[in-house]
From TrEMBL:
Thiol-specific peroxidase that catalyzes the reduction of hydrogen peroxide and organic hydroperoxides to water and alcohols, respectively. Plays a role in cell protection against oxidative stress by detoxifying peroxides. It comes from Spectribacter hydrogenoxidans. This is Thioredoxin peroxidase. The keyword Oxidoreductase applies. Keywords: Antioxidant, Oxidoreductase, Peroxidase, Redox-active center.
Length: 211
């Protein structure tokens, strides 16, 4: 059975480019993004890992670590990272799991034989400080992911964990948000003393509360 939102992210021990890790210990008290790529020494993956390295500070601002995984060996990962630095202009600054026995890939259902072979597809798991899975996505091998979107979703989850709001289509940090429909207007007055705009009884727009 595949992993679902709200499930505890399975723990594991793995070899990585930064040594052996226990996943839950490595996550610590913060958030984590675990993402798979199909194979080392491939073009789209090279761009994705370079972009992720460039976004390290952005992930850190959200108290979030990043870790990559593929079924290639740690030796292959180490040989490949030089290419990423050379072509993408940023050294890889996060661990890459060498999942040669496919334990992580199978546990997280990252192997999709329909996608051509037994390498991992482009999966992403956002895991919160309680080790719960809060977002998953799976892209085909041919489509590089948008890592700004992953940051955007983390912003949304972290905001909506703390306030009775949801974020609308294409929302970005700092933009107006929606008051959750479960809150009555009476209750909303306590939570949003500066008010809101009612477009429909179920669609009430207010300023982002933590700004
Ligand atoms: C790539 O990363 O470029 C890639 C990997 C596997 C299949 C297709 C493309």
């Amino acid at each position: 059975m595949s992993l679902r939102l709200g499930d505890t992210a399975p723990d594991f021990e793995a070899e990585t480019t930064e040594g052996t890790i226990n996943f839950h210990d490595w996550i610590g008290d913060g958030w984590a993004v675990l993402f798979s790529h199909p194979a080392d020494f491939t073009p789209v993956c090279t761009t994705e890992l370079g972009e992720t390295a460039k976004l390290k500070e952005q992930f850190a601002k959200r108290n979030c670590k990043v870790i990559a995984v593929s079924v290639d060996s740690v030796e292959d990962h180490k040989a490949w990272v030089g290419d990423i630095d050379e072509t993408q202009g940023c050294a890889v600054n996060f661990p890459i799991i060498g999942d040669t026995d496919r334990h992580v890939s199978e546990t997280y259902d990252m192997l999709h034989p329909g996608e051509g072979d037994t390498s991992t597809v482009r999966s992403v798991f956002v895991i919160d400080a309680n080790k719960k899975i809060r977002m998953t996505l799976t892209y085909p091998k041919s489509a590089g992911r948008n890592f700004d979107e992953i940051l955007r979703v983390i912003d949304s989850i972290q905001l909506t964990d703390g306030y009775k709001v949801a974020t609308p289509v294409n929302w970005k940090d700092g933009e107006d948000v929606i008051i959750v429909p479960s809150l009555s207007d009476e209750e909303a007055k306590e939570h949003f003393p500066d008010g809101w705009k009612t477009l429909k009884p179920y669609l009430r727009v207010t300023k982002q509360p933590n700004r």
